[in-house]
Design a protein that fits this description.
Length: 102
């Protein structure tokens, strides 16, 4: 596999779907496509020119597409800034809720 086709999601920010051929969604689970929304074509990607693709080594990427028919790239988990700040201040990182306060 030399090329991959990249699509982005209109529903999920920074979420990308990689498939082997343009509009080849037949092996992508229906539930995933439903949550992803209508795929928006981004580009063709020459895999052999990159050591990493979608944050993983290119060989693992190719294996995933060959085995499953797609690769889903999700955004990294966002850090809870309030929890981090409270922890840095030496406060309990767990934010109290109304139920606990009453």
């Amino acid at each position: 596999m030399k090329l991959s086709v990249v699509y982005k999601s209109k529903r999920k920010a920074d979420t990308y779907l990689y498939v082997e051929k343009k509009n080849a969604f037949d092996r992508v689970p229906e539930v995933l496509l439903k949550q992803f929304g209508p795929p928006v074509f981004v580009m063709y990607l020459a895999i052999e020119k990159h050591k990493k693709v979608a944050g993983i080594d290119s060989q693992s990427f190719v294996t995933s597409i060959k085995d499953k028919g797609y690769y889903l790239q999700m955004p990294p988990a966002q850090k809870n800034l309030l929890k981090t700040h409270r922890s840095e201040l030496g406060l309990d990182a767990n934010i109290p809720t109304r139920e606990r306060d009453e």
